[in-house]
Amino acid sequence: MSDSEEAAQPPAARPTGPRSTTARPGKRERLIRSATEIAHSHGVQGTTLALVAKAADVPLGNVYYYFKTRDDLLRAVVDEHARRVDDLLASLDRRSTPRSRLKGLARNWAEAADLVAAHGCPIGGLSADLGKLDGGLRACAARLLRTLIDWAAGQLTELGVPDAPAEAVSLLARVQGAALLTNAFDDPKLLTEEITRIERAIDQLADAAQAAP
Amino acid sequence: MSDSEEAAQPPAARPTGPRSTTARPGKRERLIRSATEIAHSHGVQGTTLALVAKAADVPLGNVYYYFKTRDDLLRAVVDEHARRVDDLLASLDRRSTPRSRLKGLARNWAEAADLVAAHGCPIGGLSADLGKLDGGLRACAARLLRTLIDWAAGQLTELGVPDAPAEAVSLLARVQGAALLTNAFDDPKLLTEEITRIERAIDQLADAAQAAP
DNA sequence: GTCTATACCCAGATAGAC
DNA sequence: GTCTATCTGGGTATAGAC
Predict the structure, then answer these.
(1) What is the CATH number of the domain that holds A96?
(2) What is the pLDDT of residues B157-202, one digit of tens each?
(3) What start-end ranges are recorded for coiled-coil regions in this protein (chains A, B) (predicted)?
């Protein structure tokens, strides 16, 4: 490296695996994935570097080559979720109608009912956990929920639903609350049934908007 | 004490303050109250004995005279919430109609909007936090939510609402989800507006049941 | 770049004087 | 009953050999 201001600069978020097609992802990526999983199952405060390093099969001391501090790793976890949300919304955007897109979003939680029953909603749980921290991480997770609400509000607007932003908040609230109860009672069926009801509510909103334009 | 099997037996949950009318509550009670507050603001994992002892103005070592382990103290926190829930529901039961009782329950969250924005719903947060623990505490918090749902289902049944249990779950889910978003965005208004919408939903359920008995 | 060993701190819990 | 001092374990973070 001729252009040197830092002797050893971490890879800094390469697109995907840096190696050949079949090799497992690089260490940085493995660490992020493990941390994301453990933050979901054990909560943010239970996400210790020892657990993450072990799950990623990376020696503990080596973690600090990729992340200066534990908070940096947690920030990367939020970014990872942001990527996943963007991917999901992009795939939903390919559907033909706003109604189908909104239902697809709701269905997405129902499909993960078992995971949600076991550990809660990854995004909702992360938000709640980060909200109880002291540092700059506090506000960092609300952006995931914000993205989802804004997207839903856009779909509702396209449907001609009046008061779309408030309806979007209600929709997300119903999903998040259902996820919380599902986790509390460890009962996937609660989530699938509640999502069905939410899909009905989406239909009613769409039908009402179509009837009175 | 003539009836001695234990040399020093902790007070074991006396009804209220053991002293004269104006003295502050006993140490055990102060510890429970401080722990309840800190569990709300810092989360269960952030509820350290040092913090609790300091807030209750009790020396750290003395905590163990009242609670054998930290888990015991956390169990006492859940019990404290259970008491508060029972009190709330008992006071609501004095209202004349199920509709008014249900709205009163919803209003209860709206009145605490600032606290919810700052730290989330005490019960929902506790449930989520305990769900991520290993030990026997895991299932212990779901009972608070269970109590609320069962009570709401009873009120809806009395109203003649069909599928009352599922409607009760939906109602609680909406409240809990609204609380989660309110906390994530640190915005009390979000909760008050969402509760208003939930009250409207209660009216609609009641009106519909009355129209078609 | 990678990994071992370890410093350092703060948590829960205990001992024992008072 | 009350409180100080302390033990022990596990957490983040660093030093430094390779």
Answers:
(1) 1.10.357.10
(2) 999 999 999 999 999 999 999 999 999 999 999 999 999 999 999 9
(3) none
What are B47's two structure tokens?
A: 């509820």
Q: Is B201 exposed, middle or buried (0-12, 13-18, 19+ CB in 10 A)?
A: middle
Structure-model confidence comparison of residues A6 and A102, the more confident one? A102
- If one counts the domains in chain A, the total is 1
Tell me the one-letter amino acid at A101: R
The CB-based long-range contact list for B160-166 (8 Å cut-off, 24+ gap) reads B160/B209, B160/B210, B160/B213, B161/B205, B161/B206, B161/B208, B161/B209, B162/B209, B166/A193, B166/A197
B46: the nucleotide nearest its CA (via C1') is C11
Q: Note the CA–C1' distance, A65 to C10, in angstroms.
A: 25
Nearest residue, CB atoms, B174 vs list A42, A45, A174: A174
User: Two tokens at A139?
Assistant: 């506000």
Residue B146 lies in a domain: yes
Residues spanned by the domain of B199: 74-211
